[in-house]
Amino acid sequence: MTRSADNAPAALKQLKQRTAAASAAGGSIPSSPTPDSAASSAAASANAADAAPIRLDKQGAALLSFDKGLLSTADLPEVAVNKDLVPDFGPQLAHVKEQRFLADDRIAARTLAVTVAAWLGWTLLAPLSFAGYNAAAVQGNATAPPSASAVEAGLANGYPVLYFALGFVWLFVAAGLKIRSFMILHDCGHGSFWATREWNDKTGKLLQMLAYTPFALWRYGHNRHHLVQGNLDVLDEAATIAHTTDDWRKLALWKRVLIRGMRDPIVFMLVLLPLYVWFVHLPFHRRSSWPARLCFLIQATTLYAAFAVRGVPQPFLYAVTLEFFTAWLAGITGIFLFHLQHSVNTGYRAPAEKFSPHAAAIHGSTMLRVPAFLKWLTLGIQYHHIHHLSTRVPCYRLAACHEVGQERGLWSEVNVVDGPKAATSFFNVFWDEPTHQFVTFWPYQIVGQNLGEPNMAYASVF
To answer: Would you say residue 335 lies in a domain?
Structure first.
């Protein structure tokens, strides 16, 4: 299936011409609409969509911009040629546009302050664990019998094990803080965390060093993902599953063998993709920024200074090792979360003539059941169906938006993902158009079948 600008829907081109004329006539759009009611919000969004200049990128995706920003998916008019093929999500769209679910600067300030305070606390407290481990180990060596080995001496009083375990816990805490920081940066890229673009940009640029993500690069690529996710005729470069079984079968045998090894779910999701994204693609992309490129060095240097002050032996080795594994663990977690948001059966994929961004939000985005103790880190991104309906709903409003919508019966068609379903979906690698489901490689379909997905299929190399 060809994914190019030549196959872009004709409706998009007509929309581009119509809205360009409106923009030339002097139409302007406020960056943060504040309607008095859901009805006025819908009207304002419709006017915004009619006036915003629209351009197509080189791969045929619509990029809608206003006031140097991007429109929310909720403001994107339906572009399907056959309207009978597009379901009506009017009630859901009106719900997510309600004023009470928009940005609140007081809540945003509190959310950011807590995150920054947690980072400062981690930077101050984590080195104490390693310093305590060293001191306890020295004490153990001093009190152990002369014939005892170094390991036996270190275990003599029990404290080194405690300190080492605590230091290992700090690794997970730091990874969690990176994820939380990324969620805030993510919303800043959508222009929804704060009520003004200025503060969204400032916060995003600040957090890019903590989240290992160039802000400008993320803002462009991720907003593009929101407009094309689920469209089979436009390549979604952000997707963990971007190809179909038909694409796979058309490849030469040697390419299928190569991809079978590289796209193996365990190798791809746990090693190749997180290392490539965070240590190659993001820092060295032409749209990246120097603060983001130097983030590893900056954070490792900060840890080195903290370790050195606390008297930790080999502070450079500790700092670099801890920072590397923290970034790797955060990368694995973030990629797995993103994978579960769009690559779970039953999913949504449609050719351009049948594609609807709103259907992609309801049918192609999921609601994850996240343990309560992790919700502080995920900041509501588990309600991904709402996020794809409207990127203007900030992270700290997503839970309330979901709960109110649940009371109104708006989410009955949303794909809910629990633990077993998440474990099964980890192994999905391709979209199979004839059966409208995601498939895996042999022998991983056996895992899926044992976890509650008896019809899980696989793509054969031969």
So the answer is: yes
